[in-house]
């Protein structure tokens, strides 16, 4: 967790904010601390940046304050435009049960229509990633209507049963696809279902 002022030292508004945090550089979280809260003021930093609510995919511009409806079970979380976040969405009784679960990729486009992120996988238990280079490290990028996965560690050796179950792209204005998909024209959100590619493989998805 990092305070906003660390990532945005030139934005004086962030200096006094103590109840919002960044997870990495692409997720902004505003915890709900009072069960009586029905709405929280949230500040979204970054001039020229865009942020998306991860639950509704609603788009917001940076450098603005807004009120977000909340409950004790709905924490405001925003994803930065220009990022790719990899998530395991299947609810399990423990994290160990999720080891080989598939991934969902959430691609939030910036104002230039591009995004990038990384995916890292190892055995979650040992130091084999360090001693034997047993891990997967991928670079994910979207540009010119093409989403691709590239190997960042060609000398590593690791096999995983995890695969890509779903790709969700924010701010896409129509597309054709050979895989099963859904398109929400209201929010401009495209969801590709079951592309069925292994997370450790090189692959490319082209939107037409």
TrEMBL record:
Q: Which GO terms describe its biological process?
A: N-glycan processing
Which UniProt keywords are present, listed alphabetically? Glycosidase, Hydrolase
- Could you tell me which Pfam families the record lists for this protein? Glyco_hydro_31_3rd
Query: The organism sits in which domain of life?
Result: Eukaryota
Q: What is this protein called?
A: Glycosyl hydrolase family 31 C-terminal domain-containing protein
Among PANTHER family, the record links this protein to: ALPHA-GLUCOSIDASE, NEUTRAL ALPHA-GLUCOSIDASE AB
Q: Which InterPro entries match?
A: Glyco_hydro_31_C, Glyco_hydro_b
Q: Write one Gene Ontology MF term.
A: glucan 1,3-alpha-glucosidase activity
User: Start and end of every Glycosyl hydrolase family 31 C-terminal domain?
Assistant: 2-85
Family designation: Belongs to the glycosyl hydrolase 31 family.
Would you name any one GO CC term?
glucosidase II complex
Native source organism of the sequence: Cyprinus carpio (Common carp)
């Amino acid at each position: 967790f990092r305070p906003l002022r660390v990532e945005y030292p030139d934005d004086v508004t962030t200096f006094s904010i103590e109840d919002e945090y960044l997870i990495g550089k692409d997720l902004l979280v505003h915890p709900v601390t009072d069960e009586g809260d029905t709405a929280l003021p949230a500040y979204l930093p970054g001039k020229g940046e865009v942020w998306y609510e991860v639950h509704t995919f609603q788009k917001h511009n940076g450098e603005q304050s807004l009120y977000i409806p909340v409950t004790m079970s709905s924490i405001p979380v925003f994803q930065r435009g220009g990022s790719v976040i990899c998530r395991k969405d299947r609810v399990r009784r423990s994290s160990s049960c999720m080891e080989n679960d598939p991934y969902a990729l959430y691609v939030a486009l910036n104002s230039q229509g591009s995004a990038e992120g990384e995916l890292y996988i190892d055995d979650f238990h040992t130091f084999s990633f360090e001693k034997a280079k047993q891990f997967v490290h991928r670079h994910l990028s979207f540009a010119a209507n093409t989403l691709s996965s590239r190997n960042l560690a060609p000398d590593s050796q690791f096999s995983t049963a995890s695969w890509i179950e779903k790709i969700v792209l924010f701010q896409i204005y129509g597309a054709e696809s050979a895989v099963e998909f859904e398109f929400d024209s209201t929010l401009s959100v495209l969801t590709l279902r079951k592309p069925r590619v292994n997370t450790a493989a090189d692959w490319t998805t082209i939107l037409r």
